[in-house]
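pipeline/complex-builder :: batch 7 item 3
reading input block
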Amino acid sequence: MDSTDAIYNGLKQAGIDFIVSVPCINLKKLLKIIDEDEEITHVPVTREEEGIGICAGAYMGFNKPAILMQNSGLGNSINALKSLTELYEFPLVMIMSHRGTEGEPICGQVPMGQSTPDILKAMNFKYETPKTPEEALESVKNSWNLTNNSKKPVAILLDVKYW
Amino acid sequence: MIRKDAIENIIENIEDELIICNIGVPSKELHAIKDRPENFYMIGSMGLASSIGLGLALTKPDKKIIVIDGDGSVLMNLGSLVTVFAQNPTNLTWIVIDNGVYGSTGNQETYAQKIDLLEIAKSIGFDAHNWEDIDLKEIINNKKCSFIKFNVESGNSDAPNIDLTPIEIKKRFMDELKKN
């Protein structure tokens, strides 16, 4: 299975129908597929934090939202994830390209990449780190139920080697 | 005229529209003036009122959405002006009550005193107006994504804290939406 198709199929099977995004080179193919899917509302945003707000609004409009971003976007969204998403118990799936992991060619990605799992732990958010398309399909497919039941955002981290 | 008076003016023109209200004293004032299930009060995440409103407007195109925002909050999320305009939700009316200060934190001056948020909105392309030039009901129903700047003096009323939990605010709001 293709690494991108696994995520896309997982999102479809999870029932995700509203996606906000800030691009990553590793999400390039996925973003194109999502943009062309007429069943999914795709809203590119200027900064991840506003995307967290948009997802909250979309949930109140009875959609199932997800955000696609680099792990750097987690840093840009921390307060909103706590003071909006968690505070009001808005479900949210976060699909993150986890840069700065093994094989990363850009040194600027490394500090945030190394700290990303610890940040998620400190935030007390569940996250999964699938290593193969098969694992990713399973994680993404189950992600909506996980966030909806736990009433907290859930993250799926896809490291550099995953793609 | 202070913010509370602006909210009273806005509410006089509201029927069944959904309101997303900015964090802090603005939400407390709206709650004190007219609490209703169609009001979503922000308790945290300063700056995101227009973003929440955009997500709602895109997923409930049959509903009219009003965002009550503030100058300090808009300055914290200026990118939202671009995203909202580009998405063009014609059922969204974005009202910025501009008192030139961070009113909930001690009236520190905002940079909105040095720039004009209305000119920024116009330059992006919004259907943008000053409050004194418009009839809000007409703007709400004009099938355009509109931006309104409502200039007021700084000052807070003594509105009490909101007696609802965030989860109650959300549930009540969504239950109301489910009805129709």
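note: Chain B has a mean pLDDT of 97.
queue -> next item
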